Each structure stands twice: as C-alpha cells, then as structure tokens.
Amino acid sequence: MRIAKATLNRKWLAATLLAALAYAILASLDMRLKALSGAGTADLQGFTSAAQFEAAFHAWGVKAYLSRAGFNLGFDYLFMPLYAASLFYSGVIVMEAFTLRGSSLRRILSMAAIAPVVAAGLDALENALHLTMLWSGPSDALARTASTLSTAKWAGIAIGLLLLAGAFFARLMEQQKARLGRG
Q1: Rounded CA gap, 167 and 95, in Å?
Q2: Closest-CA residue to 146 (of 110, 122, 167)
Q3: Residues 6 or more apart whose Cβ sits within 8 Å of residue 39
Q4: Which residues touch 156 (CB under 8 Å, ≥6 apart)?
Q5: What are phi and psi of 121, to 5 degrees?
Q6: CA atoms within 13 A on the CB side of 116
Q7: Which domain holds residue 77?
Q8: How does pLDDT run across 91-130, given as a tens digit for each residue?
Q9: 23, 21, 56: which is closest to 40 by C-alpha?
Q10: Which candidate, 59, 89, 159, 78, places its Cα nearest to that of 123?
Q11: What DSSP line would sit under 92-142, residue for residue?
C-alpha cells in the first residue's frame, strides 16, 4: 500500500495532536482522582501484588470514586489507537526521511514502527486486567501479569517516542529544505 507524503503528514499531525489532547484530558482526570482519593489509575501500572490493588480499590470505594477510576480506564481505550497511530506514522516518516529502499535500516525501522501498535494492544490487555480486578477482585497472578504487560507496553511506547522525535526532526528538515529552495 502506498500513501502520498502529504496525506501521511496530515494523518500524522492529526493523530499526534489528538493523542496529545487525549493524554492531557486523561492525565488531568487521573490527577484529580489521585488528589481526591490518594490513588490514580496510572498508579496501577506499577502495582505487582493484589494487596496494592486492594488498597487503591478501597480508596476509590470509600467515596464512590470507582466510577471516576472506571471512566479513566475506559477513556484510556480512546487514547490507545490515537497514540498507536501517531507513533506508527512517526516511524513511517522517519523511515522515508532517513533510509534508502531495501536497506537493512529501513527494515529495522519498519519493525520499530510496529512496536507502538503492539504496545497499544498490550495496553488494552493491561486495562482489561485492571478492570477485571476492579470488578471481580485482584489476585497476585493477575497483578503480576498486568505488571508484565505494562513493562512491555512501555518498551513499545519508548520506541514510538523515539520515532516521534525523529519524525519532528524529519519534518523540520523538510521545512528547512523547502524554505531554502524558495529563497
């Protein structure tokens, strides 16, 4: 499948801006939940035991903050495809800007561009485990599994963030080249 460069850049910019907006909303909601209850949904990513989940769930249940926590976990499902698209498009932009067709580096960057998409899938599974524990009660096995998924997810997101930085750099180079060509 081929995509025009202008279309790629437009989709990348839209996905990146929407992902940034969704992240800002999610972070704001989570900071509010943490300020009210002492535990935010982002904190769940670092938990490795049922006792840690129980403590957070108890803090949320005391004043009916469970609905806020559930909303945050659900809203995260909106954020996932946005960051996956932004970071994937970043990988394509970097690949197109800095590699030659058929090169080994191009193949490596192609695989790296998939990492954020995989990360979003892992994020979805992690949230599903968090919601399962919220509704049915936590267990150490589920807590460890969620923690492992979170670690793997962050590895994919880190790769994607490097690609995002590279995409910004590539776009700046492209704009500079266009300015010099007009001058």
Answers
A1: 9
A2: 122
A3: 33, 55, 56, 59, 60
A4: 115, 116, 117, 118, 119, 120, 122
A5: -65, -40
A6: 27
A7: 5-182
A8: 999 999 999 988 999 999 999 999 999 999 999 999 999 9
A9: 56
A10: 78
A11: HHHHHHH--TT-HHHHHHHHHHHHHHHHHHHHHHHHHHHHHHHHH---HHH
Gap between the Cα atoms of 43 and 166, Å rounded: 29
- Give the total number of structural domains in the chain: 1
| Own/partner long-range contacts of 12-15 (Cβ < 8 Å, ≥24 apart) | 12/86, 12/89, 12/90, 12/92, 12/93, 12/167, 15/82, 15/85, 15/86, 15/89
What letter would DSSP give residue 38? S
Tell me the two tokens of residue 88.
């994937």
pLDDT in tens, 24-81: 999 999 999 999 999 999 999 999 999 999 999 999 987 779 899 999 999 999 999 9
* Upper half-sphere CA count for residue 178 (Cβ side, 13 Å): 6
